Input
Amino acid sequence: MAFDYDKYLRPNKLPHIWCPGCGHGIVMKGLIRAIDTCGLKKEDTAIVSGIGCASRLPGYLDFCTLHTAHGRAAAFATGVKMARPEMNVILVGGDGDGTAIGGNHFIHACRRNINMTYIIMNNKIYGMTGGQFSPATPTGDKASTTVYGNPDPAFDIAKLAIGAGATFVARGTAFHANQIDKLIAEAIQHKGFSVVEILDDCPTTYGRRNKFKSVIEMMNHLKETTVPVKAAEKMSPEQLKGKVLTGVLYKEEKPEYTEEYAKVIQRAQAAK
Amino acid sequence: MENKLPTIEIIEKYCKGCYICVEFCPKQVLEIKGFVVSVKNLEACIKCMQCELRCPDFAIKVTA
Output
C-alpha cells in the first residue's frame, strides 16, 4: 500500500526547488516515514534548519518549522529545546551548513548531549551557492573553486560527531532509501544528541564536474563505495579500502542536557 | 486469485524527469515522455514500489 506523504506536506509549497535527481527529496521522504513510525505529533515536533539546499526541507513539511541563519540551526534548536523540553526537535542541514559555517555550533551541540536529532545531508559540495568545495569534498575532487582538484582532506562527519560527544551516530545513503527511515527513527527514539549523516548526490554542481554521467551513476557510486557495518566486520582492511561504513556506528547512554539543567534549577531554587 | 493491476498515479506538476524511477524499475514499466514520466507497460508492474520509494519529487503513487 502506498505511503501517504500528503498529510505531512505543505502542498502549496510543492514542487520543491531541488534539481532533478537530487537525493534531498529521498531523504525528506525517509524523514516523513520515520516521523510516522515514531508517531510524532505535528504540534509537538519542531524541525529546524539553517541555510542551503538541504535546509529548504522544513519549508515543505507541515510541522512547527524554523528556518534560521546560516549554520545556526543547532543554536536555535537548542533554544527551542531548552524552552520546551517536551518537544521533539529535529535539525536538518547540509554538510557545509553543519560542519563549516555551523561547525562550532555542531560540535558543541554534540558535546552537550541535548536530546535532538541532527540529519546532515552530505552531498560533498555547496550546491545552492554555485558548487564551491565544502569541508566534506573528498581530496582531489573538483568544485567551482577547486578546478584543478581539491587539496584538502575531507571531514568524516560521523567520526567528528563521535569525537565531539554525540551519543548516537549513524550513516546512510540516498541509494539505500529503505534504510534512511529506520536510521532516523532510531535516532529520534534515542535519548541524547543523535547525528544521522546521509550521503547524498548533487548531480548539478558536483556530479557534472566530477565525471558522473548521470544521476543513476551517482546513485550506483553511493552503493559501490559503502559497506554496512555488520558486513565490514568480516572484511579485511584491503577490502575495506576506500569504502565508507553505513548503519548505526555509535551508541551510548549519557546524562541528557535538559534533564541535567532541570536539576540545576531545582538546586538553585532549593538554595534560596 | 485474480492478479489485479495496480494504479500508478503520476503527478506531472511535480515530476522533473530525473530518470530515477525509470532506471530503478526492474520491469521497465515507466518511460520519460517529453519532460515527465509516463506509464509505458502497466501489465509488467510487479508492485515492488521502487519508483514510489525513490522518487525524490513525490510524483509517483502506486496503489496495489
About this structure: The CA atoms of residues 146 and 161 of chain A lie 26 Å apart. The domain at 6-270 of chain A is CATH 3.40.50.970 (Rossmann fold). Chain A has ten helices and ten strands.
